[in-house]
Design a protein that fits this description.
By secondary structure, the protein is mainly α. Helix content is 83%, strand content 0%. Helix 1 runs antiparallel to helix 9 and helix 13 packs antiparallel against helix 14.
Length: 403
């Protein structure tokens, strides 16, 4: 039998874990219509495999984080991958929509890969180095959803929609095997009991610093969710874009995020977390103010909309790795719980902000409402980043006085 890993994982292993977690969300999107036809059901019911899956992942993050603090990262990750692999196989074989949906929701166990990879990074690296490593992992979180639907569409074209779930099964087993041999336990001080762990929660929840980091994550990501909710409609109304051109333009914000994440990986070790967060928020706000100014000046052009939102992507790439590392550093012994709570809060906040954007972006408000909503989210993130910076300055001042 192949020996189990006893040392921390390579960064490449964590990258693959995260990629699989993100890939599982949308790789089969091009197949939804074919799935509805083959399973003899409504398209709306099949689409629950996306919306319902997202809701389950947000809840599971709240559970898996604390479990990993109590029992360790390794067993929770391995269990999540095993459940994902089995559920993927059943989805591939399902002939009934309800069986398919039940095991599709079980696939959500793979979210442990994204949520706990962050905790593993914080276990093995100090906060600035962790921010740098998370920056590189974040690049994958942006690339995987871009390439996933392309791969899923090609698989459907060649072999049918079930091929995507066969691929999930194979990938799940492969990554499970990789984690068995290359992901030793990194939580060196697990909680003695779940009850004792729960008793330490109030300290985390009362931490102003934790909420500063977590809410900055939520609002920064919220600007991206708002963009996804409103940009396709605004682009169609203003510029009458074809789907192909629209797809390219929508991808520009993701390209910006990849570049910003690369910058985080390169420079996060040289600057404080709060400095990186503030820099990212300033970049995002500046781009949106410029875009709004161009519209107000009568320059209604594709660049006015999508050029501005590229800056949001860059800003998020600069902000999110540091705010994530910060949230996990408030109580390193509760890194898993902090990762789950901040991740779940980000998804919940994104869902709320998406709904608000869909309501305020109308034919009359158009681009102004969309850019305004994104600016509100980015500015809220900036205020929280400045709040964390203030806490850092106060802490430094107190240390000097004490010395």
């Amino acid at each position: 039998m192949i020996a189990a890993a006893t040392t921390p994982p390579k960064l490449s292993t964590l990258v693959l874990l995260t990629a699989l977690s993100v890939l599982s969300l949308n790789m089969f999107l091009p197949s939804l219509s074919n799935m509805a036809e083959d399973l003899e059901t409504d398209y709306a019911l099949v689409s629950l495999s996306i919306a319902g899956y997202l809701a389950i992942t947000s809840l599971l993050q709240l559970i898996m984080g604390p479990l990993s603090d109590r029992f360790g990262r390794r067993p929770v990750l391995l269990a999540g991958l095993a459940i994902f692999s089995f559920a993927s196989l059943v989805c591939a074989l399902a002939t009934n929509i309800w069986v398919f949906l039940a095991f599709r929701f079980l696939q959500a166990a793979v979210i442990s890969g994204a949520a706990l990879s962050r905790a593993v990074i914080r276990d093995i690296a100090p906060e600035r180095e962790a921010a740098s490593m998370i920056g590189y992992v974040s690049m994958v979180m942006a690339i995987a959803p871009m390439l996933g639907p392309m791969l899923g569409g090609a698989l459907d074209e060649l072999f049918g929609w079930r091929a995507s779930f066969v691929t999930f099964t194979a990938l799940g087993i492969a990554v499970l095997g990789l984690c068995w041999v290359d992901l030793g336990e990194t939580n060196e001080q697990p909680s003695q009991t779940l009850m004792k762990q729960l008793q330490t929660y109030p300290e985390l929840l009362r931490s102003r610093r934790f909420w500063g980091y977590a809410l900055c994550m939520m609002f920064s990501t919220g600007a991206f969710y708002s963009f996804l909710a409103g940009a396709p409609w605004v682009a169609k109304e203003l510029f009458a874009m074809s789907p192909a051109v629209l797809g390219f333009c929508v991808g520009t914000i993701t390209a910006g995020f990849i570049f910003g994440s690369f910058l985080s990986g390169r420079y996060a070790q040289q600057y404080s977390l709060s400095t990186m967060m503030v820099a990212g928020r300033i970049v995002a706000c500046a781009g949106l103010v410029l875009g709004l100014g161009m519209f107000l000046a009568g320059f209604v052009h594709v660049v006015s909309l999508f050029g501005a939102t590229v800056f949001v992507g860059i800003g998020n790439g600069l902000t999110l790795p540091s705010s994530t590392a910060g949230a996990l550093s408030v109580r390193p012994d509760l890194a898993g719980s902090a990762s789950g709570l901040s991740g779940g809060l980000t998804v919940l906040g994104g869902a709320i902000l998406t709904s608000i954007t869909a309501a305020v972006v109308t034919k009359d408000s158009g681009a102004y409402a969309l850019l305004g909503m994104m600016l509100f989210c980015s500015a809220a993130g900036l205020s929280l980043a400045l709040y964390v910076l203030k806490l850092d300055l106060n802490e430094t001042r107190e240390h000097h006085l004490a010395a």
